[in-house]
Structure formats: structure tokens, C-alpha cells
Amino acid sequence: MRLGLALGYWGRGPSADHVPLAQEAERLGYDSVWTAESWGSDVFTPLTWIAAQTSRIKLGTAIAQMAARSPTTTAMHALTLDHLSGGRVMLGLGLSGPQVVEGWYGRPFPKSPLTATREYVDVVRQVLRREAPVELDGRFHSHPYRGEDGTGIGKALKPITHPLRAELPILLGAEGPRNIAQTTRIADGWLPLYWSPFRTDVYEASLDAAPEGFLVAPMARAKVCDDVAEGLLPVKAMLGFYIGGMGHAARNFHADLMARMGFEEEARRIQELFLAGRREEAVLAVPDAFADEISLVGPRERIAERLELWRKGPVTDLLVLSPDRLTLRTLAELN
């Protein structure tokens, strides 16, 4: 199981520690470093900054939001950075949810998410392979554009720049069972939002047809500390926000996932509290058991035991979300 460093997205502004953390991870033998985006900092610019100040570590997007860019634009970003970094890019993509897609990007959330994802990946693959002009008679991502409001004179094109790697790895952030199953067919890997080594059966059917070499790269918050309950507080704060606020009361993919993982009553309670403006209570309502299962928190010996469980399942890459150098070093030593 390889280790990756997950840096996430910026808060109020850029972190002065992201490049030093990436450099430390590279020195410790981490295989990859990953950036993210929501509705603030973008995913590619920080990764490019990191690429310029590292030499070996792979560079991943976890995730680049599909609504933010047309698939050809995303492919251009990926092939450009892949050249500049010497072939280190891993392209993680995701749909996000209706509130972000429609509220921030001002675009309709696709009525058929699986079809939209499949078409998006198809176009990106065509660009990177550069075998012919990009053409797709699609429902969401037609190339050339064939809508009634178009001119009708669009021309199918090949990228001017020759991509460095035709088979640049593409991973998808998928949550629903059918979406995960499709991911095993059209992508090189999967970026789970929540992974519990105690509940691998939740994903077993969806991963049944995964080909050899398929990447499973979940993100986990980690902290070496003596007090497990205290160490879990940032995990619970994150879960309170995602389960309670990152979605509509009637359509929240994160809450639905928590429910499928055996915590349905708790997930609905977190939503209820958060949407009522009782955010602190929502965080406290997150079960310690769930927060603990999806993270690596506690003394070194406890983390070593838990790490063994992560290794026994299908996980190929553990993306560590931690700004703490002691934690990063400990995981490198234990792995």
C-alpha cells in the first residue's frame, strides 16, 4: 500500500506550509501528493507550484470538479502539467453535487450522472490519446457542439500539443454503488470519500469487476496523539460539515453514503441539526465510532494496528490528510 499526502483545498488563503509538506512527503518516500477544489482555490495551480519544487512525487487532483471545466479544458490542464512535471500527473475527477454545480458553477446538474461522467472521461481519453480529432455524439458533452443555439460549423480537432502519456491515469471520485461499478470499467482508479477497513463489504459488489492494477485510493485524516477523542475532533468537524451542509436536505450524497455504511439514523440527525443552524451540536452528533473507522488517530501503536487492517483490503494508496510532520513520518516508518 503506497502513501500519498492529501493537502485539500485552501481556506481563507494559501497555506505557506503546502510546498514544504510536499517536499517532506517526497523525502519520506510518499508516492503522491494531492490537491483539491471546492468554490475557492482551483486544483491545478497549487499542484503546478508544487511540481516546480519537487522532482519525483506524483501529482494528483482529488478532485478536479467536472462542472468547472469542459472535458477538453481539463485534458489540456492535465497534459500541460504532465509535460512540465516529467509525467507525474494523476487526474482525479468528480461531479460534485447539485448545490455546488448549480449554485457555484451556474450549470445544471446532469439528470443522468453516470452518462455525463462516462462522456466526460471519453473526451479526456480522446484528447490524451490523440489518435484522431475529438468526436462524440453525446447527451452532455458533444464534440463538435451540435446544440440548436450553435452555429453548426464547429470542427472536430486534435490537440496541437502531443501529450506526453496517452494513458495518463484517470481516477474518479464516486459514491453511489452504480457509479463505483462504472468507475471500474472506465477509469484507472477510484477515490473513495469515506473508507472503513471494518466495512469493506459496503463496496464489495461494486468493486467485483475491477481489473488487475485498478487503484483504490481513499483519503484518511491522521494524527499521532495520546488522546484519541481529542484527535477525532477535526474528523468530526469535517463530517459534520459534509454530512450536514454539503448537500440539500433531500439530496446529500455524503449523508446517503454514511447511511449505507450503517449509520443512517446518525446521518439524518446530523443533517437535521446542521440545517437548523445548530452546527456545534451537529459536530458533536457525529459518532466517534464512525469518525474513528475512517481515520488513523491515536498513539503510534494504535495506528500501527489500524494500518494493518487498511493493508488487508483492496486499498492500493492511502492518501493521508495531515499537516503534522510527526504523523507523516510515523506513517512512513510503519508502512
Automatic annotation (TrEMBL):
The keyword rRNA-binding does not apply. Keywords: Oxidoreductase. It comes from the Bacteria. SUPFAM superfamilies: Bacterial luciferase-like (SSF51679). Signal peptide: none annotated. InterPro entries: F420-G6PD/mer (IPR050564), F420_OxRdatse_Rv3520c_pred (IPR019951), Luciferase-like_dom (IPR011251), Luciferase-like_sf (IPR036661). The keyword Oxidoreductase applies. GO terms for molecular function: oxidoreductase activity, acting on paired donors, with incorporation or reduction of molecular oxygen. CDD domains: Tetrahydromethanopterin_reductase. Residues 16-315 form the Luciferase-like domain. NCBIfam families: F420_Rv3520c. This is LLM class F420-dependent oxidoreductase. The lineage of its organism: Bacteria, Bacillati, Actinomycetota, Actinomycetes, Kitasatosporales.
